[in-house]
């Protein structure tokens, strides 16, 4: 294959790195055209939960595809969406009573922000300031970028991004975070959006449930809406169905996507509490929630999500997750004392560490070097800078998991020898 017109996401084509062609997948393994067996150590960018081509999800997709492929969702409905919305309301906190569908994590965030602003506008209060956490990531559309960390990924688009309040990431001492949030909320912030427990794209940064609970309480005291972006953290990634659950936190708005369909189809929901709905509910058409995309609540995607929820209901998913978490910890422990490893940490099934000498000047190109090394070792691992993390599908086989960690160890040794 000499020339492809495909422009890939987050890919600098000028560097000339090979773009492997994957023909099929099962479980935690991708198979390439040149017959390589690649272990998917990052769940294909955090979406695949029970494994690729899961038979129950594939069967649900095939079945739905025979009956209803796609239809308008404005003023019309279908059974897969009705079933999914009811089941989400049943398994998530009872305060989250309303389900708005979209098709990606970014759009789920855009919807959450629009709901929050709509809430304040329709109540006749002029709150509009959004508060975010340093190092956050909420997606790549304009609104989602605006509430995310600023940096090389969005510097070119800065003129289009709106201004937000920022609170520091809670490090060893969470007080500055809580104080900054308190000040923003007391100043009348409309909403605070945050990734609960783990900041994914920001570098798998982890903070404890107690801090999440305190942040939620501060928002509640001042009426600032609390938006939990669970796009990466939900569906068992952090050890529980949602990360909020570990802090007994019920947000006003929750964004879900990635593992919602088990990672098989693009689908997202923004769950809202009754006051958000009430602010829009009226005979006045100007209060309508004016948001839609063509494929809102695509029936086939909803069927995939219903199959995912059936797996959660009927199979010991949390036990599988706990077992994987324990294995991840054991592997992490073997590397924690390595001279080139720092900040070994874990939350649920997500394990992360920083590689390299903290004083090293080569850190800037360590990320691409690691990416190449892992690709050549038939591993799908995509370090965030010098942060290496392992977030596999829950069905990964022990040998494959061991191979991932052995290769990370080899990489650490190679850096030490450099
Ligand atoms: C991936 C991610 C998003 C964006 O989801 P897309 O489906 O890629 O648009 C938003 N928030 C968080 C926390 C994410 O990890």
UniProtKB/TrEMBL annotation:
One of its GO terms (molecular function) is pyridoxal phosphate binding. The record marks 10 as: Participates in the substrate recognition with KAPA and in a stacking interaction with the adenine ring of SAM. Pfam families: Aminotran_3. Its EC number is 2.6.1.62. One of its GO terms (biological process) is biotin biosynthetic process. InterPro entries: Aminotrans_3 (IPR005814), BioA (IPR005815), PyrdxlP-dep_Trfase (IPR015424), PyrdxlP-dep_Trfase_major (IPR015421), PyrdxlP-dep_Trfase_small (IPR015422). Pathway: Cofactor biosynthesis; biotin biosynthesis; 7,8-diaminononanoate from 8-amino-7-oxononanoate (SAM route): step 1/1. The keyword Cell membrane does not apply. Pyridoxal 5'-phosphate binds at residues 105-106, 229, 293-294. Its cofactor is pyridoxal 5'-phosphate. This is Adenosylmethionine-8-amino-7-oxononanoate aminotransferase. Substrate binds at residues 45, 137, 258, 292, 382. It comes from the Bacteria. The modification N6-(pyridoxal phosphate)lysine is found at residue 258. Gene3D superfamilies: Aspartate Aminotransferase, domain 1, Type I PLP-dependent aspartate aminotransferase-like (Major domain). It catalyses: (8S)-8-amino-7-oxononanoate + S-adenosyl-L-methionine = S-adenosyl-4-methylsulfanyl-2-oxobutanoate + (7R,8S)-7,8-diammoniononanoate. Homodimer. One of its GO terms (cellular component) is cytoplasm. Its main location: cytoplasm. Keywords: Aminotransferase, Biotin biosynthesis, Cytoplasm, Pyridoxal phosphate, S-adenosyl-L-methionine, Transferase. It is found in: Cytoplasm. Signal peptide: none annotated. PANTHER family: ADENOSYLMETHIONINE-8-AMINO-7-OXONONANOATE AMINOTRANSFERASE.
């Amino acid at each position: 294959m000499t020339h492809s017109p495909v422009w890939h996401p987050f890919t600098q084509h000028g560097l000339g790195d090979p773009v492997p062609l994957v023909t099929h997948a099962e479980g935690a393994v991708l198979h390439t055209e040149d017959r390589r067996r690649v272990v998917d150590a990052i769940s294909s960018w955090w979406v695949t939960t029970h494994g690729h081509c899961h038979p129950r999800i594939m069967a649900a997709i095939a079945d739905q595809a025979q009956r209803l492929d796609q239809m308008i969702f404005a003023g019309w409905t279908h059974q897969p969406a009705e079933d999914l919305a009811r089941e989400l309301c049943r398994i998530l906190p009872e305060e989250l009573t309303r389900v708005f569908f979209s098709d990606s994590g970014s759009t789920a965030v855009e919807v959450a922000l629009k709901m929050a602003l709509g809430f304040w506008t329709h109540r006749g209060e002029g709150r509009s300031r959004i508060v975010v956490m340093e190092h956050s990531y909420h997606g790549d559309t304009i609104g989602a970028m605006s509430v995310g960390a600023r940096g090389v990924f969005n510097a070119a688009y800065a003129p289009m991004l709106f201004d937000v309040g920022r609170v520091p990431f809670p490090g060893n001492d969470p007080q500055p975070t809580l104080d900054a949030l308190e000040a923003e909320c007391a100043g009348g912030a409309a909403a605070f959006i945050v990734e609960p427990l783990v900041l994914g794209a920001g570098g798998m940064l982890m903070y404890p449930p107690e801090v999440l609970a305190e942040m939620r309480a501060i928002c509640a005291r001042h009426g600032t809406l609390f938006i939990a972006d669970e796009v990466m953290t939900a569906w068992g990634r952090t050890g529980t169905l949602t990360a909020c659950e570990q802090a007994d936190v019920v947000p006003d708005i929750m964004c879900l996507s990635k593992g919602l369909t088990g990672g098989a189809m693009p689908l997202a929901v923004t769950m809202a509490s009754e006051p958000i709905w009430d602010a829009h509910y009226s005979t006045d058409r100007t209060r309508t929630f004016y948001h839609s995309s063509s494929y809102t609540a695509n029936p086939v995607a909803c069927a995939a999500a219903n199959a995912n929820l059936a797996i959660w209901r009927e199979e010991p998913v949390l036990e599988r997750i706990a077992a994987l978490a324990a294995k991840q910890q054991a592997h992490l422990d073997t590397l924690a004392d390595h001279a080139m490893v720092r900040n070994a940490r874990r939350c649920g099934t997500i394990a992360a560490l920083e590689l390299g000498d903290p004083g090293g000047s080569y850190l800037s190109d360590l990320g691409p070097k690691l990416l190449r090394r892992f690709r050549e070792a038939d591993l799908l691992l995509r370090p965030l800078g010098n942060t290496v993390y392992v977030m596999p599908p829950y069905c990964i086989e022990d040998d494959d998991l061991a191979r991932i960690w052995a290769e990370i160890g080899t990489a650490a040794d190679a850096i030490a020898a450099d």
